[in-house]
Amino acid sequence: MTVPELHSELDYVEYLPKKAAVVGCGVIGAAWASRMLLKGVNVMVADPSPDAEAILLEVLGNAVAAWDDLGLPTDKQGSYTMAGSVAEAVADAEFIQESAPERPEVKVAVLAEIEAAAPADAIIGSSTSGIKPSVMQADMANPERLVVGHPYNPVYLLPVVEVVGGDQTTLENIRRAQGMYAAFGMRPIHVRVEIDAFIGDRLLEAVWREALWLVNDGVATTQEIDDIMTHGFGLRWAQMGLFETYRIAGGVGGFRHFIEQFGPTLDWPYSKLMDTPDFTPELVDTLVEQSNAQSGMHEIRDLERIRDQNLVGFLKVLEGNKWAAGNVVAEQRKG
Amino acid sequence: MTVPELHSELDYVEYLPKKAAVVGCGVIGAAWASRMLLKGVNVMVADPSPDAEAILLEVLGNAVAAWDDLGLPTDKQGSYTMAGSVAEAVADAEFIQESAPERPEVKVAVLAEIEAAAPADAIIGSSTSGIKPSVMQADMANPERLVVGHPYNPVYLLPVVEVVGGDQTTLENIRRAQGMYAAFGMRPIHVRVEIDAFIGDRLLEAVWREALWLVNDGVATTQEIDDIMTHGFGLRWAQMGLFETYRIAGGVGGFRHFIEQFGPTLDWPYSKLMDTPDFTPELVDTLVEQSNAQSGMHEIRDLERIRDQNLVGFLKVLEGNKWAAGNVVAEQRKG
To answer: In Å, how far is A291's CA from the nearest CA of chain B?
Structure first.
C-alpha cells in the first residue's frame, strides 16, 4: 500500500482573478458569486431563470450580514452583471464556476456553451457534488483546465472546497484553481484520486443511506436522528474529524491503541446496507410529515439566518482557539 | 408505514438519585462519575484497575475546568469513594452506570455481579455502544430495570444519551432512567426500537466504514478526510442535523422539494460498501502513520483540552442563539 503524498498548503500560489463568471445562479451559484463579490471580484452571472437576480441579492444579503458579524470586511465589494447569455458572461473571464443542475447531460451541454466563448486558458470549476470530471471533460476542446470545485453550503461561510481533476486536467491547472479558491478565502483540498462523489459526499451518502433506512423502518424520526447528531457527534466534528476524535479515544497509546482496543468492535456488522430505500410516495410522505413536525414552525429564511449565526459563532470560537476552520478565517483577516 | 410516536420531553420526571455507582472507570466511566459528582451526587466507583482513581481525578479535573469555563456551578460537588468491589459499590445505589469493556460476555458477567448486591429496583444503565439490552438482560434476576444509556465522549460536555430498553425492560423504568439522565444535565433520547448499535453509532459506523476504505484504497489521508469534515459538514452538524440541513437545501418548497429536486441524485450508487476493510498490519500501519503525521505534534492531553475549549465555546454560542444543545445548557443554568 502506498501512502499518498500529503496535501501541502505550499503547492499553489494564491491568485485573485480580476474577472470571474458564475454560470447557474441558484442557491449554490449565488453563494459562489457572493464570496467572489465580497473579495472585490467583478462577477458576470448567467442563468436563464427570471428569479436568478433575486436569488443572488438575497444570498448576497445573507453573506454580507454573516461577514459583518464575523468582522470580515464587506466594503470592497466587486460589482455583478446579469449577463444575457452564457457566452456574454464568460467572454472575458479568468475563472468560471459552473453550478448548473446536477445531471451529466446538462453539465456537458453547459460546459460546451462555456467553452465556445471563454478564453482557452480560463479555469473552469464545476460545483458538481458527484459527477467525475473525466466524464464532463471527455468532449471538451480544452479539457486540461476543467476541475471540480465542490463546495459545501453555505458557500460564503464554510471554507472547504474539494478540487478534483479528471484524466485530462493538468496538475498545473489544479494548482491554479486551488490558488483562486484560496484567494476567495477558502481551504482548497486536492482530491488526488478521482472517484464518484469525491470524499465528503461519500461520507454524507453513507450517513444519508443509513438515516433513510432508520426512518423507513420506523426506528427513528428525522427529529430524533438530528437531535442525536446535534447534541452528540456533530459537536465533535465541527472541530475534530473522525480520525482525530478516535485518536483521543485511544488515549496516550494513540491511534494504534485505539485500533487494538476497539478493532473487533469496529468490525461488527452493525449494518450491511448497500442501497437507499425506494422513494415510495409513502416514504416521501413520512419524511415530509416528520420534517414538518420537526422544523415546520420555522420559515426557511429564519433557519438560514439561525444557521449562519451559529456558524459565525463557531468560526469565532475556532479562530480564538487557533484551530481548524478558525485558521482560515484568521488568514482572511490578514489578507 | 406507521409514523412512530415523537419523542416527548414530558414523558419523564427529572429525579436526581442521592446515591449512584459507576462500575468500570475508564475514560467513559470516569466522565459519567464526573457529571454526577458535579451535580452533587455521591458516587461509589468500582474498577479493578490500579489506575482507576488517577483516571477519575484527571477526567474530573477536565470536567470542572470545562464547567467553570461554561459558567455552570462546580461548588456543590458530591463525594466519590473507590469501592473495594462491585458489591460494595452498588449495595446502596439508586442508579448504577456500567461502563465495562465492550464484550458481551464481560457485560453479562459484570451485570450479574451488580445484581447480586444491588437493590432490586435500582436502575442499571449500560454504556455499551452497540450490544442489545435484550442480550445483556437475558439471564438477569430483575431484567426489567436494565437500560442502555449510551453517551458520547466527552460525557461531561456532550448532552445526548440514547436510552434503549430490551424485551424485558418496562416502559416505567425507561422513563425513570430518562428522568435521572435529565437530572445529570443530559438530553435523554428514547430509542424506541431495539437494534444493534442503536441510532448514533449506526450513523458513525457508516462513516467509519466509508472513511476506512478511502484510506485503504489510497484515495485520501486521515488528515484530508478530517479536514473536509471540520471545514465543511461538521460545522453544519453541530447545530442542525442531516434532515434539517437538507430541508434548507429544498428552499421554500421544504423537504418535499428537496426530495423531488435531488431524489435521483440521492439514489446514485456512489458506494456499495458493506464491510470494513480487514485490519491488516499494513492498514493499521498506514492509519497510525497518517494519524501521527496529522496529530502527532499534539499530546493527547492537549487535544482533550483544545476539544473541550472548542465544545464550551460552541455550547455558549448555541445557548446565546437559543438553539439545539445550547438549550440543554440553559436548562442546567436554571436548575
So the answer is: 7
